[in-house]
Amino acid sequence: MEKMRTERVQYPVKSEVVKRIIADQRLRHDFNVCQRLPKKLKPPTPAEFRRNQEAVVMLAYVAAAYKFVDELPTELEAAGMYRHSIKRQANRIEPILKKASRHAEDALKAANNGKASTGYYDVMDAFYEAIDNCISLEAPERAYNILLAMCRNVGIYNQRLDEYHFVPAYDVAKIPSILANIPIEDHKLDNIIDMVVRPIVFNREY
Question: Residue 181 gets which letter from DSSP?
Protein backbone atom coordinates (compact mmCIF):
# COMPACT_ATOMS: atom_id res chain seq x y z
CA MET A 1 0.00 0.00 0.00
CA GLU A 2 2.81 2.39 0.86
CA LYS A 3 4.53 1.64 -2.44
CA MET A 4 1.40 2.48 -4.44
CA ARG A 5 1.07 5.81 -2.62
CA THR A 6 4.68 6.68 -3.50
CA GLU A 7 4.10 5.99 -7.20
CA ARG A 8 1.16 8.37 -7.29
CA VAL A 9 3.26 11.14 -5.79
CA GLN A 10 6.08 10.48 -8.22
CA TYR A 11 3.85 10.82 -11.28
CA PRO A 12 1.12 13.33 -10.39
CA VAL A 13 -1.33 14.28 -13.10
CA LYS A 14 -2.41 17.86 -12.84
CA SER A 15 -6.10 17.89 -13.67
CA GLU A 16 -6.27 21.59 -14.52
CA VAL A 17 -5.73 20.86 -18.20
CA VAL A 18 -8.68 18.47 -18.17
CA LYS A 19 -10.82 20.98 -16.25
CA ARG A 20 -10.10 23.58 -18.89
CA ILE A 21 -11.04 21.17 -21.67
CA ILE A 22 -14.36 20.23 -20.10
CA ALA A 23 -15.10 23.87 -19.30
CA ASP A 24 -15.88 24.59 -22.92
CA GLN A 25 -19.26 23.33 -24.09
CA ARG A 26 -18.15 23.00 -27.69
CA LEU A 27 -15.12 20.89 -26.79
CA ARG A 28 -17.31 18.94 -24.41
CA HIS A 29 -19.66 18.12 -27.30
CA ASP A 30 -16.93 17.16 -29.79
CA PHE A 31 -14.61 15.26 -27.48
CA ASN A 32 -17.32 13.90 -25.15
CA VAL A 33 -15.24 14.34 -22.01
CA CYS A 34 -18.09 15.05 -19.67
CA GLN A 35 -21.85 14.70 -19.38
CA ARG A 36 -22.55 18.30 -18.42
CA LEU A 37 -20.69 21.57 -17.95
CA PRO A 38 -19.60 22.04 -14.33
CA LYS A 39 -21.41 25.09 -12.96
CA LYS A 40 -18.36 26.32 -11.07
CA LEU A 41 -16.31 26.79 -14.27
CA LYS A 42 -16.97 29.72 -16.56
CA PRO A 43 -16.72 29.33 -20.34
CA PRO A 44 -13.08 29.87 -21.37
CA THR A 45 -11.73 33.04 -22.88
CA PRO A 46 -10.39 32.87 -26.47
CA ALA A 47 -6.88 32.39 -25.07
CA GLU A 48 -8.08 29.56 -22.82
CA PHE A 49 -9.98 27.97 -25.69
CA ARG A 50 -6.81 27.94 -27.76
CA ARG A 51 -4.96 26.37 -24.85
CA ASN A 52 -7.71 23.75 -24.64
CA GLN A 53 -6.96 22.83 -28.24
CA GLU A 54 -3.23 22.75 -27.56
CA ALA A 55 -3.89 20.33 -24.69
CA VAL A 56 -5.93 18.02 -26.93
CA VAL A 57 -3.16 18.02 -29.54
CA MET A 58 -0.54 17.16 -26.92
CA LEU A 59 -2.57 14.34 -25.37
CA ALA A 60 -3.32 12.90 -28.80
CA TYR A 61 0.41 13.01 -29.60
CA VAL A 62 1.12 10.99 -26.43
CA ALA A 63 -1.46 8.35 -27.27
CA ALA A 64 -0.53 8.11 -30.96
CA ALA A 65 3.17 7.82 -30.10
CA TYR A 66 2.33 4.85 -27.90
CA LYS A 67 0.64 3.23 -30.90
CA PHE A 68 3.81 3.76 -32.99
CA VAL A 69 6.21 2.46 -30.34
CA ASP A 70 5.79 -1.20 -31.35
CA GLU A 71 6.94 -0.42 -34.88
CA LEU A 72 10.44 0.71 -33.88
CA PRO A 73 11.76 -2.67 -32.60
CA THR A 74 10.19 -4.41 -35.61
CA GLU A 75 11.95 -2.10 -38.06
CA LEU A 76 15.26 -2.24 -36.16
CA GLU A 77 15.14 -6.03 -36.04
CA ALA A 78 14.40 -6.28 -39.77
CA ALA A 79 17.44 -4.06 -40.40
CA GLY A 80 19.66 -6.22 -38.17
CA MET A 81 20.08 -3.38 -35.66
CA TYR A 82 17.98 -4.62 -32.76
CA ARG A 83 20.73 -5.89 -30.48
CA HIS A 84 23.03 -4.92 -27.60
CA SER A 85 22.91 -1.25 -26.57
CA ILE A 86 20.43 -0.27 -29.28
CA LYS A 87 17.99 -2.87 -28.01
CA ARG A 88 18.33 -1.53 -24.47
CA GLN A 89 17.66 2.02 -25.65
CA ALA A 90 14.63 1.03 -27.70
CA ASN A 91 13.18 -1.03 -24.86
CA ARG A 92 13.32 1.94 -22.46
CA ILE A 93 10.78 4.05 -24.31
CA GLU A 94 7.78 1.70 -24.28
CA PRO A 95 7.23 1.96 -20.49
CA ILE A 96 7.52 5.75 -20.65
CA LEU A 97 4.86 6.09 -23.34
CA LYS A 98 2.66 3.47 -21.73
CA LYS A 99 2.71 5.29 -18.39
CA ALA A 100 2.05 8.70 -19.98
CA SER A 101 -0.80 7.29 -22.04
CA ARG A 102 -2.33 5.62 -18.98
CA HIS A 103 -2.16 8.85 -16.97
CA ALA A 104 -3.86 10.73 -19.82
CA GLU A 105 -6.65 8.16 -19.90
CA ASP A 106 -7.02 8.22 -16.10
CA ALA A 107 -7.24 12.01 -16.06
CA LEU A 108 -9.92 12.02 -18.75
CA LYS A 109 -11.88 9.27 -17.01
CA ALA A 110 -11.70 11.15 -13.71
CA ALA A 111 -13.18 14.21 -15.42
CA ASN A 112 -15.85 12.11 -17.11
CA ASN A 113 -17.20 10.19 -14.12
CA GLY A 114 -15.12 7.10 -14.83
CA LYS A 115 -15.93 6.86 -18.51
CA ALA A 116 -13.38 6.98 -21.31
CA SER A 117 -13.57 9.77 -23.86
CA THR A 118 -14.65 8.27 -27.17
CA GLY A 119 -14.02 11.50 -29.02
CA TYR A 120 -10.50 11.73 -27.64
CA TYR A 121 -9.68 8.25 -28.93
CA ASP A 122 -11.10 9.22 -32.31
CA VAL A 123 -8.64 12.12 -32.44
CA MET A 124 -5.81 9.78 -31.40
CA ASP A 125 -6.68 7.37 -34.21
CA ALA A 126 -6.91 10.25 -36.66
CA PHE A 127 -3.41 11.40 -35.62
CA TYR A 128 -2.00 7.91 -36.10
CA GLU A 129 -3.60 7.48 -39.51
CA ALA A 130 -2.57 10.94 -40.74
CA ILE A 131 1.06 10.44 -39.71
CA ASP A 132 1.12 6.91 -41.05
CA ASN A 133 -0.05 8.16 -44.43
CA CYS A 134 2.13 11.26 -44.73
CA ILE A 135 5.58 9.86 -43.92
CA SER A 136 7.18 8.02 -46.84
CA LEU A 137 10.50 7.13 -45.24
CA GLU A 138 11.59 3.50 -45.42
CA ALA A 139 12.32 1.33 -42.40
CA PRO A 140 14.16 1.66 -40.07
CA GLU A 141 14.26 5.45 -40.56
CA ARG A 142 10.48 5.68 -40.61
CA ALA A 143 9.46 4.63 -37.08
CA TYR A 144 12.58 6.20 -35.57
CA ASN A 145 11.92 9.61 -37.11
CA ILE A 146 8.21 9.56 -36.38
CA LEU A 147 8.77 8.81 -32.69
CA LEU A 148 11.48 11.45 -32.29
CA ALA A 149 9.35 14.12 -33.93
CA MET A 150 6.21 13.27 -31.98
CA CYS A 151 7.99 13.19 -28.63
CA ARG A 152 9.68 16.53 -29.27
CA ASN A 153 6.30 18.00 -30.20
CA VAL A 154 4.83 16.69 -26.95
CA GLY A 155 7.47 18.69 -25.08
CA ILE A 156 6.78 21.82 -27.13
CA TYR A 157 3.03 21.71 -26.55
CA ASN A 158 3.51 20.94 -22.87
CA GLN A 159 5.61 24.09 -22.46
CA ARG A 160 2.86 26.17 -24.05
CA LEU A 161 0.39 25.00 -21.40
CA ASP A 162 2.30 26.87 -18.68
CA GLU A 163 0.74 26.11 -15.29
CA TYR A 164 -1.63 23.58 -16.87
CA HIS A 165 1.17 21.30 -18.00
CA PHE A 166 0.89 17.52 -18.14
CA VAL A 167 3.61 16.13 -15.85
CA PRO A 168 4.24 12.75 -17.64
CA ALA A 169 4.95 14.70 -20.84
CA TYR A 170 8.35 15.67 -19.43
CA ASP A 171 9.47 12.04 -19.59
CA VAL A 172 8.05 11.68 -23.10
CA ALA A 173 10.04 14.72 -24.23
CA LYS A 174 13.24 12.97 -23.07
CA ILE A 175 12.77 10.02 -25.43
CA PRO A 176 14.74 11.60 -28.33
CA SER A 177 17.79 11.84 -26.07
CA ILE A 178 17.35 8.18 -25.07
CA LEU A 179 17.35 7.15 -28.73
CA ALA A 180 20.03 9.62 -29.82
CA ASN A 181 22.83 7.03 -30.11
CA ILE A 182 20.97 4.84 -32.59
CA PRO A 183 22.87 5.31 -35.89
CA ILE A 184 19.88 6.51 -37.93
CA GLU A 185 19.61 9.97 -39.43
CA ASP A 186 17.19 12.32 -37.71
CA HIS A 187 15.28 14.07 -40.50
CA LYS A 188 13.66 16.59 -38.10
CA LEU A 189 10.06 15.89 -39.10
CA ASP A 190 8.63 17.86 -36.17
CA ASN A 191 7.07 20.69 -38.19
CA ILE A 192 5.93 18.45 -41.05
CA ILE A 193 4.07 16.12 -38.70
CA ASP A 194 2.60 19.00 -36.71
CA MET A 195 1.29 20.67 -39.87
CA VAL A 196 -0.47 17.42 -40.75
CA VAL A 197 -2.09 16.67 -37.38
CA ARG A 198 -2.70 20.13 -35.87
CA PRO A 199 -5.62 20.91 -38.23
CA ILE A 200 -7.37 17.73 -37.05
CA VAL A 201 -8.03 19.60 -33.79
CA PHE A 202 -7.79 23.28 -34.75
CA ASN A 203 -9.91 23.12 -37.92
CA ARG A 204 -12.80 21.20 -36.42
CA GLU A 205 -16.18 22.90 -36.47
CA TYR A 206 -17.51 23.48 -32.95
Answer: T
SS3 readout for 93-141: HHHHHHHHHHHHHHHHHHHCCCCCCHHHHHHHHHHHHHHHHHCCCCCCH
Q: Are 133 and 72 in contact (CB under 8 A)?
A: no
For 184-200, write each residue's pLDDT tens digit: 999 999 999 999 999 99
**CB of 23 within 8 A of CB of 43?**
yes
**Beta-carbon contacts of residue 69 (< 8 Å; ≥ 6 apart):** 93, 94, 97, 147
> How do residues 61-111 score in pLDDT, each as one tens digit?
998 999 889 999 999 999 999 998 999 999 999 999 999 988 887 776 766
Half-sphere exposure of 102 (CA within 13 A, CB side): 9
